[in-house]
TrEMBL record:
Protein name, per record: Alkaline phosphatase family protein
Record SUPFAM superfamilies: Metallo-dependent phosphatases
Matches recorded under Gene3D superfamilies: PhoD-like phosphatase
Any single Pfam family the record assigns to this protein: DUF7800
Lineage: Bacteria, Bacillati, Actinomycetota, Actinomycetes, Streptosporangiales
Domain DUF7800: residue ranges: 1-85
Source organism per UniProt: Actinomadura alba
Ranges for domain PhoD-like phosphatase metallophosphatase: 116-453
Length: 528
């Protein structure tokens, strides 16, 4: 009998269609409601995405999963309600929950209460479900492993390089199973709440694509090719495919080839290696419209332009795509980037200074030191790509002022990564459209005490003037926009929810209050 290895995961959902993702132990037919899909195979692992169509807008439909005619979901004696598909309904309301940075499995207690577990229990007890759950980075930690993952690696390859890290496709598959399948509450949550995702560095490796120097160092390692190919290949299967609408998947030539192959492993490996070596050949970013709200999810890791001559957060092709997505008539523009666009001002100036020094502003010797500081202190956010930061600022101000279509009621960047949560407001005149940076991090991976203290110091503004002067000494121009932190920082495990009704938008941050409930940290208006 064919059995579920992982899933079901409810992925992209719109007003009439939904995608159900599963991994199985054998090839076979997967049925959800009256819709079926046959599994495809990659390196001996079997997957399927079932596309359910013809649903009513704003409807709730319980579903089961059958493999080769045998029901395998829900599992017998599950304490959770039936999994449901909730379609998007109407143009006026949206509830988008988001967060980042989740260490798992839940059995390891060093990282505090798992926000997703507490969230699952609240929904199971009748709490209002979100329209979509957006997980914006570090869904898995490929370089900071738990006990179960370390044991799997030791049993498989002993102490071979890379020690304490994943090495290939097979190990990534096991890590995803631990992250999403070990806890029954999380597994149920992912089966009943539509999820979208985008990677950050730990999904591949800490500081992934920090700089041209970093890339050269990684590719000099004999184990790196299998690591990056396995990381991007499994990301394509476990995260990326479910981000796409059924139409977008149907237009993906790689998806068609992999499904048609007896085993698509070689095809996917070739794609993944090419995607890393030539980022312009692939796209991980995506955008969806929910009524009058546009969500743009930006790849701020793999699409970086990093050569000896140029560096940019987004290569030219990706920047053009981003600008196209931000133009148009909508009430709300939500831009998700795993890395905060607006950091606390003192950190922004420090990263901008470091980029200038590492690129030679103070000479070759200082550049080498600057590169070591950049990698050692993780100075690689938008602020460390000054040209890209400036371009995006100009683009967003045009949107806010109604120069790219009707001005939205609010523009918000949604981010994670930094392991604390906050709200920052742009204070530069923007034609009446508020521009905000909303950060929610971590879902489950709080900062250690010494790092928390350093971030608190950075957030209180005492060092801002001194660090701006330091940046100016390296000939860094003043940022084209001004902003200030107005909420936070909060260092708790947390989840945030953007609530949109008509042209009104608010955000609420919540933290686990015990193992099965949530307590409010703060809230704010995001629109006019």
């Amino acid at each position: 009998m064919t059995r579920l290895v992982l899933g079901p995961l409810l992925r992209h959902v719109d007003d009439r269609c939904a995608t159900i993702w599963v991994e199985t132990d054998l090839p076979g037919e997967v049925r959800v409601l009256d819709f079926t899909a046959h599994t495809f195979t990659v390196h001996g692992h079997h997957y399927a995405l079932v596309e359910v169509d013809g649903l009513e807008p704003g409807s709730e439909t319980p579903y089961e999963v059958a493999l080769d005619g045998e029901k395998v979901w829900p599992e017998p004696d599950s304490p959770f309600p039936p999994s449901r598909i909730r379609t998007i309904g109407g143009h006026d309301e949206l509830r988008l929950a988001f967060g980042s940075c989740r260490r798992s499995p839940a059995a390891e207690t060093a990282y505090g209460t798992d926000t997703l577990i507490a969230y699952a229990h609240r929904l199971a007890e009748g709490g209002d479900p979100p329209s979509v759950l957006l997980m914006i980075g570090d869904q898995v930690y490929a370089d900071e492993l738990g006990d179960k993952m370390r044991k799997f690696i030791t049993d498989r390859r002993g102490d071979q390089e890379p020690r304490g890290e994943l090495s290939d496709f097979e190990e990534y598959c096991h890590l995803y199973r631990l992250a999403w399948g070990e806890d029954e509450a999380v597994r149920w949550l992912l089966s009943t709440v539509p999820t979208l995702m985008i990677f950050d560095d730990h999904d591949i490796r800490d500081d992934w694509n920090t700089s041209y120097t970093w890339r050269k160092e990684m590719w000099s390692q004999p184990w790196w090719r299998e690591r990056i190919v396995g990381g991007l290949g499994t990301y394509w299967i476990y995260q990326h495919l479910g981000n796409l609408s059924a139409r977008d998947r149907a237009e993906d030539p790689l998806y068609a080839k992999v499904r048609a192959a007896a085993d698509g492993g070689e095809l996917l490996d070739e794609f993944a290696e090419r995607a890393d070596e030539a980022p312009e050949t692939s796209r991980w970013s995506y955008a969806h419209d929910y009524g009058d709200t546009r969500l743009v999810v930006v790849d701020s890791r793999s699409s970086r332009l990093l050569t000896a001559e140029r560096r940019a957060m987004l290569d030219d092709r990706e920047l053009e795509w981003f600008e196209e997505q931000c133009a148009g008539d909508f009430d709300h523009l939500l831009i998700a980037s795993s890395l905060p666009y607006l950091l606390p001002a003192s950190i922004h100036h420090a990263e901008a200074w470091n980029e200038a020094v590492a690129e030679g502003a103070w000479g070759k010797r200082a550049a080498r030191i600057g590169e070591k500081i950049r990698q050692g202190a993780d100075l690689e956010h938008w602020a460390a790509f000054e040209t890209s930061f400036r371009t995006v600022a100009e683009d967003i101000l045009k949107v806010a002022r109604g120069e790219q279509g009707r001005a939205p009621a609010g523009i918000a960047f949604l981010s994670g990564d930094v392991h604390y949560s906050y709200l920052a407001r742009v204070t530069t005149p923007s034609g009446g459209t508020p521009i905000s940076q909303v950060v929610c991090s971590p879902l489950r991976n709080p900062l250690e005490g010494k790092f928390k203290l350093a971030q608190k110091l950075a957030c209180n503004g005492v060092l801002t003037s001194a660090l701006r002067a330091l940046a100016r000494s390296a000939k860094v121009p003043r940022p084209p926009i001004r902003w200030r932190m107005t909420k936070g920082p909060w260092f708790d495990n947390a989840i945030a929810t953007i609530e949109i009704r008509g042209r009104v938008s608010t955000v609420v941050w919540e933290t686990p209050d015990g193992a099965t409930s949530l307590a409010e940290l703060g809230r704010a208006e995001l629109s006019t």
